[in-house]
Design brief:
The chain has 427 residues and is of the alpha+beta class. It has a domain at 177-214 and 294-426: 3-Layer(aba) Sandwich (Peroxisomal Thiolase, Chain A, domain 1). It is built from 15 helices and 14 strands. The radius of gyration is 22 Å and the shape is globular. 52% of the residues are buried.
C-alpha cells in the first residue's frame, strides 16, 4: 500500500561563491551548519529520525561517507544508519527520492535527506606521468636507483590538473558541461542577448527575495571558525545588467559562443536538508507539513544534450498524472546555464520535438516565466552540485506554501545525460 509522504521542514546554508581557494567549510561542515538549527526547532529528539541520506559528489578524503559523519555530528545517534548517494547534479534530489520511497512503502517513518558540496575544496590532481614517477620512486631500493629516478623529474610533474575541470567534463563525449549548453543553444536558436537577459532576471529575483525576507526560514546563517557570519547567498549581483554581461567573452566556444561566466551557474559551496515524514509521524509529533511528495521521475539521454534532462523527466511525470503545462503552478528548474533552461522551454513549445521525442500529439506548451524560478536560481545562487537538487525541492515546497499554490515540479539536468523531476502538492 502506498502511504502519503510529507516534507515537514527543511533548511539550507547560504550558498558561498568559490574564490580561488578552499572555503571556510567542508561538505560535512556545511551539512552540520544548516542541520543543527533545523533539528533544534523540531518537537522531537534527533534520535527519532530513522535514517539520514546525503547527496555529495566531491567527497573529500577526510570525510568518507559524509552522511554518516554528519549524522553523528548532528546527534542522530550511533544506531542511526546513514549513507551517501551520488548521481552528479541530481544527488540532492536522489536523497529525497530514496527517502520518499522508503516512507511510501512503509519501512521508515522519518528521514533526513540532504545534499552538500564544497566545490572550493575540489582537489588539484597530479598528472598520470607524475603519479607513475612517484610510484617508481617509492619502489627504488638503492641510492643509485633513487638517483636515476631523480634524474627523470620533469617540471610538468608539479603542474597539477584542476580536478573540478575534469569532473565537469563528460568522459563519453569529451564535452564539458558548458559545451553541452552551447549544443542546445545552437539546436534551439538561443541567442546571447536572450541568455543574458535570463541571467539578469535571475539575479534580480534573488535580490528581491533576500530583500523581502522570503528566504528567512529557509536559509540558516553559517558561522566559520574565525567567527565570521555568512548570512546569505553571496554570489548575487543586484546591479547585473545586459550592458555588463555583454562585455563578457564566451567561456567555452570562442569567439561566437552564447555561454559566458555571466549566464552560467556559479561554482559554489552549500548544503541543504529536508525532513520527510509519514502520516503516522506527522500525527505522532504534531508536525505541520510544507508539502506532499506526489511522485518522481528519472530519465536518461545523450550526454551531449544533457541539459534537456528536465524535459525528459518532467513531461512523463506530468503526463502520468493527467497534468497539462498550465496545471503546474510553480516550476523550479535548476539553472545550470541560461541557454540550457531556455532550451528546455523551447523544447516544450516545439511540436516536432514533443511528437518525436516525447510521444505527444503536439507541443506540451509554454511555461509561464512568472511560474518559473520565482526567486532566482543557480545563475544567481550558485550550483553546489550535490546540493542543488535538494535546494530546488525545498524551495518549491516553501514557495507553494508562501504563495498559496497547489502544485509544482522541481527538476534538473544531470551531467552524464540524465534528468530528475519531483512533483509536489500543497499539504
Amino acid at each position: 500500500m502506498s502511504r502519503p509522504v510529507y516534507i515537514v521542514d527543511g533548511a539550507r546554508t547560504p550558498f558561498l561563491k568559490a574564490r580561488g581557494k578552499p572555503g571556510p567549510f567542508t561538505p560535512v561542515d556545511l551539512a552540520v551548519q544548516c542541520g543543527r538549527p533545523l533539528l533544534m526547532r523540531q518537537p522531537f529528539a534527533p534520535s527519532a529520525i530513522d535514517l539520514a541520506i546525503l547527496g555529495c559528489v566531491n567527497v573529500i578524503q577526510d570525510e568518507m561517507n559524509p552522511a554518516r559523519v554528519a549524522a553523528l555530528r548532528l546527534g542522530l545517534g550511533e544506531q542511526t544508519v546513514a549513507f551517501t548517494v551520488q548521481i552528479n547534479c541530481g544527488s540532492g534530489m536522489q536523497s529525497i527520492d530514496t527517502a520518499y520511497r522508503y516512507i511510501r512503502d512503509g519501512s521508515h517513518q522519518m528521514i533526513l535527506a540532504g545534499g552538500t558540496e564544497a566545490l572550493s575544496h575540489a582537489p588539484l590532481v597530479f598528472r598520470h606521468a607524475a603519479t607513475e614517477w612517484f610510484g617508481d620512486m617509492a619502489r627504488a631500493g638503492s641510492t643509485f636507483e633513487k638517483a636515476q629516478k631523480l634524474a627523470e623529474v620533469r617540471p610538468g610533474f608539479f603542474s597539477p590538473i584542476i580536478g573540478l575541470e575534469r569532473g565537469l567534463t563528460d568522459p563519453i563525449t569529451d564535452l564539458n558541461m558548458g559545451q553541452t549548453a552551447e549544443v542546445l543553444a545552437h539546436r534551439f536558436n538561443i541567442d546571447r542577448a536572450t541568455a543574458d537577459a535570463y541571467a539578469v532576471d535571475s539575479h534580480k529575483r534573488l535580490a528581491a527575495a533576500q530583500e523581502s525576507g522570503r528566504l528567512a526560514g529557509e536559509v540558516m546563517p553559517a558561522f566559520d571558525r574565525d567567527g565570521q557570519v555568512h548570512a546569505q547567498d553571496d554570489g548575487v549581483r543586484p546591479d547585473s545588467s545586459l550592458e555588463k554581461l555583454a562585455k563578457l567573452a564566451p567561456a567555452f566556444e570562442k569567439p561566437f559562443g552564447k555561454v559566458t561566466p555571466g549566464n552560467s551557474s556559479q561554482i559554489t559551496d552549500g548544503a541543504s536538508w529536508v525532513l520527510l515524514a509519514s502520516e503516522t509521524a506527522v500525527e505522532a509529533h504534531g508536525l505541520t507539513p510544507l508539502a506532499r511528495i506526489t511522485d518522481s521521475e528519472w530519465a536518461a539521454l545523450d550526454p551531449a544534450i544533457m541539459g534537456l534532462g528536465p524535459v525528459l523527466a518532467s513531461t512523463p511525470l506530468a503526463q502520468r498524472h493527467g497534468l497539462d503545462v498550465d496545471d503546474i503552478d510553480l516550476w523550479e528548474i535548476n539553472e545550470a546555464f541560461a541557454a540550457q533552461v531556455l532550451a528546455c522551454l523551447a523544447a516544450w513549445q516545439d511540436d516536432d520535438f514533443c511528437r518525436d521525442v516525447l510521444g505527444y500529439d503536439a507541443a506540451f506548451g509554454r511555461v509561464d516565466r512568472d511560474r518559473l524560478n520565482v526567486d532566482g536560481g543557480a545563475i544567481s545562487l550558485g550550483h553546489p552540485v550535490g546540493t542543488s537538487g535538494n535546494r530546488i525541492v525545498l524551495h518549491l515546497a516553501n514557495a507553494l506554501k508562501a504563495d498559496n499554490k497547489r502544485r509544482g515540479i522541481a527538476t534538473e539536468c544531470i551531467g552524464g545525460g540524465q534528468g530528475g523531476a519531483m512533483l509536489l502538492e500543497a499539504a
